[in-house]
Design a protein that fits this description.
Layout: H1 2-28, E1 35-36, E2 42-43, E3 48-56, E4 61-73, E5 80-82, E6 98-100, H2 106-141
Helix pairs in contact: 1-2
């Protein structure tokens, strides 16, 4: 029974990290100059993605449960907006005159948030049901 609770707890932890990354993506999406590339051009905020793997050693689970394996940048290209007068427009090359926008898609982030929050809720429900079953079993034994 404790393994079931640990599996649910590992999934809730993983989904809460995913929700945090989604919030960071939404907050960072308007940033047009998160850093500068080698040519001196502004590089906007790049969307972050969360990758899960099975197992949750922190909960004593080797092959059960889930954990965040890594958080990585989304390699999707930046959308371009032609605006040669903008101070952050690319100066040289094939993208000259274009302003790079963040590759964060607000609709995708909203869907990801809904999926993550529903997964969190489902695991919370499983955790609570398991806890109730254990309490009932202890009541019968007592």
């Amino acid at each position: 029974m404790f393994d079931v609770m640990n599996i649910s707890a590992s999934a809730m932890r993983a989904q809460s990290i995913r929700i945090q990354v989604i919030a960071e993506n939404v907050a960072g999406s308007p940033v047009l100059a998160a850093r500068v590339d080698g040519q001196g051009n502004a590089v906007p905020y790049r969307r972050q993605q969360v990758f899960f793997v099975p197992g949750a050693p922190e909960f004593g689970l080797k092959s059960q449960g889930v954990r965040v394996a890594r958080i990585a940048e989304d390699p999707a290209p930046f959308p371009l907006e032609y605006n040669p007068d903008h101070p952050l427009a690319v100066r040289e090359g094939p993208e000259a005159g274009y302003v790079r926008r963040s590759n964060v898609n607000p609709l995708l982030e909203q869907v990801d948030f809904l999926v993550a929050s529903r997964a969190y809720e489902a695991n919370l429900t499983a955790f609570e049901v398991t806890k109730t079953m254990m309490r009932g079993a202890l009541r019968i034994l007592a």
